[in-house]
Design brief:
single chain, about 325 residues, mainly alpha, 2 strands
Length: about 325
Amino acid sequence: MKILFTTIAILCIQLCFSQKRDTTINNSLLRELGENACKCVDSINVYSKKNSEIAEEISDCIDEQTSAYQIGSKLANVDLLKEIEKEKDGKKQINISVNLNKESDEYKEHYFRMERYLMANCKSAKIKIASSDGQNEKSFSSNKKSLEMYWKGVEETKKGDHKSAINYYEKALEIDSQFAFAWDNLGLSHRKLENYDKALTAYQKSLEIDPNGVMPLQNIAVVYQYKKEYSKAIEAYHKLSLIDKNNPEIFYGIGNIYAFDLKDLEKGLSNMCKAYNLYIEQKSPYRTDAEKVITSIYSEMKKQGMLTRFDEILKENNIRTQ
């Protein structure tokens, strides 16, 4: 059996060393190409698409810029190479090679840097990877007035005016109480306003309409986390796993609960590693979030003298550090 290893950046000293050589040029190049990737992401149509489909298209946008980033990074080092290269017959010969194999460590290093840039600086990437929920026949209403109120609510949600959004979602539901996405968004707005019990009620209403709705199941777990009812949150994630076992958000959520709320670093790390690998497999830019959490767990386990166990858990999940 062939074992595939993924790589994660843990220590800042390791990342910073490779960046110091050509910081100014490389950062400028990353910004330029990152903005190109962001424009590509901005053009993605997310309507009625699953997260995996959106993630694949975002990955394609990153891929389009990664090769140019690799080449540009190598060319930025030409002056440095001139200084260290020995002369032969009175001349210096500088060889620059670029590995365009997407499975190579070199390609992944540049791909992940581009991905980190997008998640830190590209608003479209954050919005679009979080925007989908696969629809079915009851997801939307066939009533034009109900849909009109719903889309007005969506616009208010985008503005961050959740009180106004709630008003529109409730109007949509007064017209069509079987409008699952309106219940989902009503729950989200209540959650943002910390009306957790009302959020749970909205999500439960959505599940009555569509028992396999991923969005309400996932958000019920999140609401229980906010309510500090951690056993209920874990139970909700397990229910989600029955219909969507390869959803990395399950392991990401459980990992956060164990690591930071229940203070079980080993279980937290084990789940977060599973989330990390699934994000990579699904080409999701949320990989960067899992990477940050694993780095935080690393810092805490280092304080507690648990680095041997940290390395063992990463190895168990076929993850190696740079």
